[in-house]
Write a structure and sequence with these properties.
The protein has nine helices and 19 strands. The chain is α+β, with helices and mostly antiparallel strands. The strands form three sheets. Strands 4, 5, 6, 12, 13, 14, 15, 16 and 17 form a nine-stranded mixed beta sheet that branches. Strands 1, 2, 8, 9, 10, 11, 18 and 19 form an eight-stranded mixed beta sheet that branches. The protein binds flavin-adenine dinucleotide.
């Protein structure tokens, strides 16, 4: 063992995933350090997103993802009831002609995944252009408040005794092989806080850095994983009066969504065509792009949206949320949202995770528990 402070586990990245996994490990009796580069937990993708708690409707082309979403939706609402906003009606509108599903296919898909669906009331249908929208459905899908979620998980982490280091990044690491009788290998990590460096070691390291996973893998000498990154913009808007109390998602293709963003009391306007500003596959640009000033594409988004929903012309722009979105290339082809859970071949004490949705954390947790139970590297108490 090295002389540096030693933890059973170091979790790198204090988004929702890192926070939940740190809590899981701590509750199994481990000594855990959670390291976050930003000044607060849940400050990046876990905050800067569309806030949709997916209930399956969004994935008519991936039945498996839809069914998992249905299960995780119930679980998330059960666990985080005080962190979700259910005060609005959510309408899914099916575009005519250009959508990848028809209205009847969408209705059949919802029946198959047993997701509640009913025709939208006439006064809502009348808001849409019938030449472009085939049908409008009322669905059961809510939004989460990321600030309430942050407060809740931060409290739980402190109560459980997880050590938290914010304003701290992990910049390098190396594997230390123990040739002694105990033969417990570990990873030594260099942590930087405001220019000060310190070294810690752990027998298990979780890489929960989302758009930074490959940068971290490279910094410890591990192979990287093919990923695609997008610089994304969602406009924060005040919706038109006609749409008060409603969220709208137009399916299935290059359309838009208008979703409540509870932590700011506003709505996000996102558009499949205009929200991604640029994309790249090499890992090292992930954190550079977001720092570059960009011109908003709100006017493009709202111009297109009003072709389907004319009242959108009165949506008032307030601000934009920018974030790097990271997806696995497979998701691009079939619209699935698989989780990534991978132990490094070169540094077996390091596990990288990535989930495409906030609720997929439950799938990652299951994978971690199974891995720990099966692994002789981390003989944890159950
Ligand atoms: C535009 C957009 C819209 C989305 N919409 C939705 C949606 O509507 N519904 C949904 O369920 N999901 C949505 N998602 C996906 C969801 O946001 C992510 O799946 C989820 O937030 C990932 O959580 P995380 O903890 O892995 O990542 P993050 O919250 O990004 O956490 C990773 C953390 O790691 C930290 N970090 C990185 N590198 C280092 C380092 N070297 N040292 C220390 N710390 C480091 C970062 O600062 C960050 O806080 C959306 C994502 C984006 C980008």
């Amino acid at each position: 063992m090295s002389g540096s402070p030693h933890y059973d586990a170091v979790v790198i990245g204090g988004g929702f995933y890192g926070a939940r996994l740190a809590l899981l490990l701590r509750r199994r009796g481990e000594r855990v350090l959670l390291v976050e580069r930003e000044a607060a937990l849940l400050a990046r993708a876990s905050l800067r997103n569309q806030a949709r708690v997916h209930n399956g409707y969004h994935y008519p082309r991936s039945i498996l993802t839809s069914l998992r979403s249905r299960l995780n939706y119930a679980r998330f609402l059960g666990e985080y009831a005080e962190c979700v906003d259910r005060s609005f009606a959510h309408y899914y509108a099916i575009a005519r002609g250009t959508s990848k599903v028809t209205a009847s296919q969408f209705a059949e898909f919802c029946r198959r995944i047993d997701a509640p669906l009913s025709p939208a009331p006439d006064h809502v249908v009348a808001l849409f252009d019938p030449a472009r929208i085939e049908a409008v459905f009322l669905v059961d899908e809510c939004a989460f408040d990321a600030v309430k979620l942050r407060d809740r998980v931060a409290r739980e982490l402190v109560d459980a005794g997880v050590e938290i280091a914010v304003n701290t990044s992990v910049d390098r690491g190396s594997r230390i092989v123990d040739h002694g009788p105990s033969a417990v290998d570990e990873v030594r990590l260099t942590l930087s806080t405001g220019g000060e460096h310190r070294v810690v070691s752990a027998e298990l390291v979780l890489n929960c850095t989302y758009s930074g996973v490959n940068r971290l893998l490279a910094s410890v000498g591990a192979s990287t994983i093919p990923m695609k990154h997008e610089l994304t913009e969602m406009a924060l808007v005040v919706p038109p009066a006609e749409l008060e109390g409603a969220a709208v998602t137009v399916m299935d293709g290059p359309f838009f969504s208008l979703m409540p963003y509870p932590s700011r009391g506003l709505f996000t306007l996102s558009h499949v065509r205009y929200t991604p500003h640029c994309s790249w596959e090499e890992s090292d640009r992930a954190h550079e792009a977001i720092d570059r000033p960009q011109a908003t594409r709100f006017s493009h988004m709202v111009h297109d949206a009003q072709r389907y929903l004319p009242s959108m012309r009165a949506a008032r722009y307030v601000d934009s949320i920018w974030e790097t979105k990271t997806v696995m290339p497979r998701s691009e082809q079939d619209d699935s949202r698989p989780i990534l859970f991978r132990r490094s071949a070169e540094v077996p004490e390091l596990i990288t995770v990535l989930g495409a949705k906030i609720d997929s954390v439950y799938d990652v947790e299951e994978a971690l528990v199974a891995e720990l139970s099966a692994s002789r590297l981390t003989p944890l108490a159950s």
